[in-house]
Description:
The protein is built from three helices and nine strands, in the order αββαββββββαβ. It has helices at residues 4-7, 41-46, 116-119; strands at residues 19-24, 29-38, 58-62, 67-69, 77-82, 88-95, 100-102, 108-113, 128-132. A hairpin with a 5-residue loop joins β5 and β6. InterPro entries: DUF192 (IPR003795), Saro_0823-like_sf (IPR038695). This is DUF192 domain-containing protein.
Amino acid sequence: MGFLRYLGGHHAQPQAKLRVRIANVTRQSVLADNVEVADHGAARSKGLLGRDGLDQGEGLWIVPCEAVHTIGMRFPIDLVYIDRNKVVKKVRSSVRPWRLSGCLTAHSVIELASGAVLAAKTHRGDALEFSPVDGV
């Protein structure tokens, strides 16, 4: 279906690498401004595997997803689990490689560069807002 259904929009072409900006409305901060959307099989399965790192402001939104692993990864990441209303259910900072993490009440998870959660002051219960990045 594509991530636009989660934003309330219409279906987009599945081959396009869709990106969103994620703002923390509660804290009036930006969590990330260049987040790739992984909303289909291959992209969801691969996640961040094979990458050497994430720059600040980058991330991956895995939809749907309630658990992730960092097995085989080369760098730590921050995790933000959210429900269907885009309310933060759980936050994990600087999750190192070879770890497991989950949140059974989450609908999806955002994987971010380590330090992003602290910089945006994001906490459980915060409301997030997603907006398309250029051309989406």
